[in-house]
Design brief:
The chain is α+β, with helices and mostly antiparallel strands. 43% of the residues lie in helices and 32% in strands.
Amino acid sequence: MPERRLLDTTELFTALPADVLDDLRKQAANRTYDRNELLFNFTGGGSSASPTHELIVKISGSNLAVTIDRDSKLPSNELYTLRSTYTLTEIASKKVVVTGRAVSSVSYDDVNQQRFARLIGMQDAERKATHVISENITSRLASYFVGGG
């Protein structure tokens, strides 16, 4: 019998509140984008050789309303912060060779208070923050490998 992960079952999703599901979807999208960015940075979009190291990246994001519109009581300016921790482990020896943290904050405006525009602004901020995190991790790992690892 094949192994099933808990998140592969639909019963779990029906039991979760909508806001929790939205948060899980957002985290999954950020992780996918972050993974794709890092893969491209290290392989240039081509196939890679047999891996010698394993990179584990944990990310979490949060939104903060910076200013609130007096009339609508909705945020008019928000700050999205993405935090990540990463660990690079040598596969052969199982030795952790690099650990680090990266943080990126991106602000975005909700000038016209339209729901779709706000959503797109938030997604753009998430992508920008993820790109910055990816570049920070790439730079740190490149310096490790250039330095002789």
